[in-house]
Amino acid sequence: MARHPAILFVCLGNICRSPLAEAAFRQEAERIGLDVTVDSAGTGDWHVGEPPDPRAIAVARANGVDIAGYRGRQVAPADFERFDHVVALDLANLARLRALRPEGSRAALSLLLDHVPGRAGEPVADPYYGAQEGFDTTWADVTAGARALARRVAEAE
Ligand code: 4NP
């Protein structure tokens, strides 16, 4: 690859799951010494310009990453040119991304947990309407996905 790989995580609101996937991937990339561009976005536009949900900020902080400075944005067709991997957090958003993807775009589109052996096809559940504990599950899921994907990206380098 001519430049370092770029990875975009996409959920619905870009305030819960995808910022946590971005944080977990940054942490894992740093741990294994992988030089990457990482970002996240939402298929929806309700939270554009907003910081992550306070419960997401809290679980990331408890796991050693500060995401308070992240800001929500909506995914756009140009992201399929800017990123090598566009990674959906669940199946509804994967379907939206398939519809948005420009013809002939070079980005690889995948579901996050497809990268984890034994978890293909599983979504990362939306924790937005649940309790704080749901965010611990989200963190565990995005960490498993981030580790598996980071290994795969590192092997392709
Ligand atoms: P996320 O969670 O997709 O993990 O960021 C959600 C956040 C906000 C909404 C839905 C899901 N919402 O409907 O505002």
TrEMBL record:
Its EC number is 3.1.3.48. The keyword Hydrolase applies. One of its GO terms (molecular function) is protein tyrosine phosphatase activity. Residues 5-152 form the Phosphotyrosine protein phosphatase I domain. InterPro entries: LMW_PTPase, Ptyr_pPase, Ptyr_pPase_sf, Tyr_phospatase_low_mol_wt. It is an enzyme of class 3 (hydrolase). Signal peptide: none annotated. It holds the Pfam family LMWPc. SUPFAM superfamilies: Phosphotyrosine protein phosphatases I. It comes from the Bacteria. Coiled coil: none annotated. The active site is at C11, R17, D126. Keywords: Hydrolase, Protein phosphatase. Belongs to the low molecular weight phosphotyrosine protein phosphatase family. This is protein-tyrosine-phosphatase. It comes from Methylorubrum extorquens DSM 13060. The lineage of its organism: Bacteria, Pseudomonadati, Pseudomonadota, Alphaproteobacteria, Hyphomicrobiales.
